[in-house]
Specification:
Shape: globular
Structural class: alpha/beta
Number of strands: 10
Largest sheet: 5 strands, mixed
Helix content: 25-40%
Radius of gyration: 19 Å
Number of helices: 13
Strand content: 15-25%
Order of helices and strands: EEEHHHEHEEEEHHHHEHHHHEH
Length: 289
């Protein structure tokens, strides 16, 4: 452990496996910053099924539900946020072993942390969006908000749809035009019509919030699960580690996409494995204005 200014640094394991192929730029490896100075799904019902679907555990663990339950903390809640195609689903399933996990595709994290979907509200809110009911200050310590991100070119080919737009997903992440955005529109107009950079900025720029956001770089996660577990405060059990599964992709217009998303890729390159995005306090905010 060492210090750089006001930032506490923990070295992560190097990313020894290429994470991007066919010309898509690899996001670099930086020291892990776990603190910065800026400014229900209740799985107890289906614990065994969830467990077996994402990991390859030793038989003595997978067959013993009582052993699994001892790792589950019903007082802990994990909000796993992302734009899709960046590992949020597998991280959601993994953290479901240790607490109540919520998969969130909301583009706009609230200033005051709120519940999701229909929890504690009569309104018909989509399950992966925040609703209008604030979580009390007393309960905030029971929540961890994780934002997982990935190279935007990989995201596009993983989830957004190339031949035809994946409209349901694009609607879920609150894209413009009701999600009807074609891949060809991105290339022809040379613009981030998906708003991936806006999504990234909304979670990684410090604002006047009442909670921290743990920004996690997908490319570095797989070699640093132990460090991630330590930061999350969950047991580090290798038999429970998620298994990386990549769907083969057919890339095209990579040069064009690299140029369109150059600004975002550079921002991601400067990020470390885990960065805690601290809220801006009111007095600090006033000093900056």
């Amino acid at each position: 452990m060492n210090f750089r200014g006001n930032k506490r640094i923990i070295k992560e394991k190097p990313n020894t496996k290429p994470c991007i192929i066919n010309g898509v730029p690899r996001i670099n490896t930086n020291p892990c910053i776990i603190d910065t100075n800026p400014s229900i799904v209740n799985v107890q019902k289906n614990l065994a099924n969830t467990f077996q679907s994402i990991v390859k555990p030793e038989p003595r663990i997978s067959n013993n539900i009582d052993v699994l339950k001892k790792y589950f903390n019903n007082d802990m809640n994990f909000y796993i946020c992302g734009s899709g195609g960046c590992g949020s689903t597998i991280l959601f399933k993994y953290l479901s072993l240790f607490g109540n996990a919520y998969h969130i595709h909301d583009r706009y994290p609230p200033n005051k942390l709120k519940y999701t979907g229909k929890e504690n509200t009569d309104k018909d809110v989509y399950s992966e969006w925040f609703n209008d009911v604030e979580i009390s200050e007393d309960n905030l310590k029971k929540y961890k908000v994780i934002f997982i991100y990935r190279n935007p070119v990989e995201i596009i080919f993983s989830r957004f749809g190339k031949t035809n737009p994946n409209i349901p997903h694009l609607q879920h992440i609150m894209c413009n035009n009701d999600g009807n955005i074609k891949f060809s529109d991105i290339i022809n107009k040379k613009k981030d019509l998906y708003g991936i950079e806006e999504f990234f900025d909304n979670y990684t720029v410090s604002k006047e919030r009442n909670y921290d956001i743990y920004a996690v770089k997908y490319e570095l996660f797989w070699n640093n699960i132990s460090l991630f577990n330590n930061v999350m405060g969950i047991p580090d059990i290798k038999e429970l580690y998620p298994v990386k599964k990549e769907t083969p992709k057919r890339y095209s217009y990579v040069t064009e996409l690299n140029q369109i998303y150059k600004s975002l890729i550079n921002k991601m390159n400067r990020m470390s494995f885990i960065e805690v995005i601290k809220p801006i306090k009111k007095d600090e905010d006033n000093k900056n204005t």
